[in-house]
Amino acid sequence: MAMPTAVRVRYALACAALDPRLRGVLLFDLEPALLLDIGHWLGSLLGNPHPYVLGTSAVADNAWIGLTSSPAFGVSPGPLVDEHGAPPRTVLVSDLARLSLTGQRAAITLLDADVAHLEREGLSVTWMPRTRWVATCARADAGRVPPHLLDRFPLRVNASGLSSVLEPPAGKWRRALARGRLATVPDEVVGEVLDRVRAGTTGARRDLALARIGRALATLDGRTRTTNADVELAASLLRLPSPRDRGRGSGPDGEACERRAPGGDRGAGRRGGEEPSPSPRADGFHVAAPGPAQPLDPGPISPADPGGPYPEDDAEPERDPGSLRSPATRHSSSRPSHGRSIGSRPGTFGDLAIVATILGAAPLQARRCEDHHSRPPHSLHLIPPDLRVHRRGAAPARLLVLVLDHTCRIGWDWFDALAPYLQWAYTGRAGVSVIEVGAADVANELRAQRFSASSLLDPRVVRALERPVGRCTPLAHGLDLAVETLRHRLHLGRVPADDVLLVIVTDGRGNVPLRASATGELPDRVGSEGVEDALAMARELSRMKRIHAVVLDPGPRPGAALTRALAEACGARLQQGGESR
Predict the structure, then answer these.
(1) Which of 219, 337, 346, 450 is most exposed, with minimal Cβ within 10 Å?
(2) For the purposes of burial, counting CB atoms within 10 Å of the CB of 340, is it exposed (0-12), middle (13-18) or buried (19 or more)?
């Protein structure tokens, strides 16, 4: 009988609370509203009921260091640093696939580490990490998480069916935590674990995770010795296939079908059970009759189970190359970067980091002024070496602006034509601005839609490329939005893009005037006004410098001269049918 979802989640959290080596819990497809309740549940079992939520845009300074004013003003360890003698804290990650770069580095640093060091702002701390991490992730987004980060979460539970608050922890679980002694693992149990997780599977920690979960389950049950039944229960918790199911696969109808040995009945897989045709080489050989079907020997765990714990084995990679490294960028200006703050560094001018400056100077106030804390409050004693400036994440040095005319897709697959430009944006880690023209199911079909993404891997980009076709073509408004986007990035933006690629995919037949897009009302008579407005906006694009423009034409058709006129107006290269003209 399958273990209920709520029971699996409770057991996973209890195992994480019991064994510090299992302090990473990953819940697939959990309802977001339940995460905080789960954090309180685990925190109450650990004795620290106040979890720390690590947001997707976490900043390193806020997580590693804090500010204290009692008994004296100074710096203190942040929430990710375990306080000596205090119960372990629970860290909640609302979406592991969208966790910031600094958050991913923190998880890699602390999860499954024996010791951690912090040297920052005059603070020197060494501790043994005991913080428990509970993260959620959609199973479909497993390809967006680096595999070495996923490997740090040994407890994997499919929580898609969880819809209510968990029951309180059992009393014997609390007694097991109070004892603090883990069950032993005999050699025969180790052999059972190795039989379940054979060589050849990806992830070096999977056999250790299964053994530790089985040991934790035996301890929670009040026993001092782990058995094979505990390993079976651990596998059921993770939804690993049993040894007798390893030789079975899933057919198209969802029923299990037995895998055959290489020397078994080869005709079973043919349509209608027909016999294989004789081989011309078989004349001089004796061909034996097919023997009975035999299942394959127990093999490695199959990651293809839709509810299995390791969806990353079959997921397509959807993350940036080297995603735990900051991208290399180039700047066309001597002005400092104005991206999101990711730390601070010594400096005296420019982008001053007020909080970091105060934190750096606070521990030195008593040395600079002996009566600083006894006298009435007065200003801090600052000297030039105290000043610090922000260290910011640089904006992408490349930009891809896509103008997608959905109404030209009828009878044409534009993915092959767009592939080289999408590849350029992916390998260069370029920012992406997508302008959609003529899409269905929009708020106002007379206007183009626009959004900006930090990279090509944003799910909105894929949805935009597959959007259904609408009725109207506000091409002039789409080009107007492209002009506005490029002006902001090239002239008004604080960090101008070095390489800007503008790709316009259209057949040139704009049937919505710019005036109608502005007012939201379609006039009684349009004529060629929509095309003329689109050409006027194209001429505005031709006046911009430092951009490379391409117009993709769907191919020969009546009215093909409209696309040629549009490409000439904006000074772009015309590409038709996948070939450059």
Answers:
(1) 346
(2) middle
Beta-strand pair 90-93/132-137? parallel
Asked which of 21-25, 160-164, 360-364 is least confident by mean pLDDT, the reply is: 360-364
Domains and CATH numbers, the chain: 1-162 (3.40.50.300), 178-246+300-311 (1.10.8), 347-392 (no CATH), 398-580 (3.40.50.410)
Residue 148 in tokens:
């070495």
pLDDT band, residue 119 (cuts 50/70/90) = confident
Alpha-carbon span 41 to 53, nearest angstrom = 14
- Our measurement of the distance from residue 352's CA atom to the centroid of its chain's CA atoms, rounded to an integer in Å, reads 32
DSSP string, 139-187: GGGGGGS-HHHHTT--EEEE-TT--SPPPPPPHHHHHHHHH--PPB--H
| Residue 560 CB neighbours (<10 A) | 15
Q: Are strands 74-77 and 123-127 parallel, antiparallel or unpaired?
A: unpaired
Q: What is the model's pLDDT at position 90? A: 93
| Residue 55 burial class via C-beta count within 10 angstroms: exposed 0-12, middle 13-18, buried 19 and up | middle
User: 0.70 cut: is pTM over it?
Assistant: no
What does the alpha-carbon distance between residue 125 and residue 361 come to, in Å, rounded to a whole number?
A: 19
Contact in structure between 396 and 454 (CB atoms under 8 Å): yes
Bridge partners, residue 553, by sequence: 576
Which class for 27: exposed (0-12), middle (13-18), buried (19 or more C-beta within 10 A)? buried
Give the sign of the dihedral formed by CA 176, CA 181, CA 183, CA 185.
Answer: positive
Residue type, 464: A
Note the residue count of the chain: 581
Query: pLDDT tens across 47-68, in order?
Result: 988 899 887 665 556 678 776 6
A 10 A CB-CB count for 401 gives 26
Amino acid letter, 245: D
Q: What is the mean pLDDT of the chain?
A: 78
Token reading at 46: 């650990």
Q: How many CB atoms lie within 10 A of CB 469?
A: 14
Q: Return the structure tokens found at 518.
A: 């502005």
The tokens for 581 are 């003209």
